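your task:
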Amino acid sequence: MLTKRIIPCLDIKNGRTVKGVNFVDLRDAGDPVELAAVYAQEGADELVFLDISATEEKRRTLANLVFHVAEKVNIPFTVGGGISSVEDVDILLKNGADKVSINSSAVKRPELINELVAKFGSQCIVVAIDAKQIDGEWKVHLVGGKVPTEIDLFEWAQEVESRGAGEILFTSMDHDGTKNGFANAALAKLSELVNIPIIASGGAGTISHFTDTFNEGKADAALAASIFHFKEIGIGDLKTALKTEGIPVRM
């Protein structure tokens, strides 16, 4: 069995790390460069850096900040927010990103996935999907969760895979920031439908939530923000507990 990955997420707004609940009520969580360095030292497997207002503000991700984070870390580093072209990705990779995450731009123009995969390789392209349940059905949302669509989560995930994406980062908006656990039923269904890795996001609050998402949700990686930013759970402690539960992790 492949080792399961633990991924801290740095949501960036105005150059600072922020965290909210259900995508709103943001509060400051510190300097992203400092946090990134700490997480790399503590044993995080990867980092995700999301410029959460780039799409809404119609601007590019902060390449300079990406450069400074990349200087401090020696683990894979995924960057997202406001990416809509081959040129955008090229800039981020040249500034130290290992992978990029696209979301709204991929939904609006799905061919973008194919173009980026052709240029940079599937291992470099993560498609992030923000979704919430509407009348019992999982619907994709855009622009940081502000714009609902009629697109079905599971159909979109299959299309994303067919276009060559290397991974899917699925965030349940219903679970985001609640610390009540991940959307494991939806994650398990996703893992049945696609063969590329699924990163679980939204709802981490306890160590058992990680155990559950790897066992019940069949997730390949688990992403969390506030529990790491506010020192509620240490990455080393989390990995030790997961290993005790028989879940393969890199120590």
In short: The longest strand covers residues 125-134. Residues 32-42 form the longest helix (11 residues).
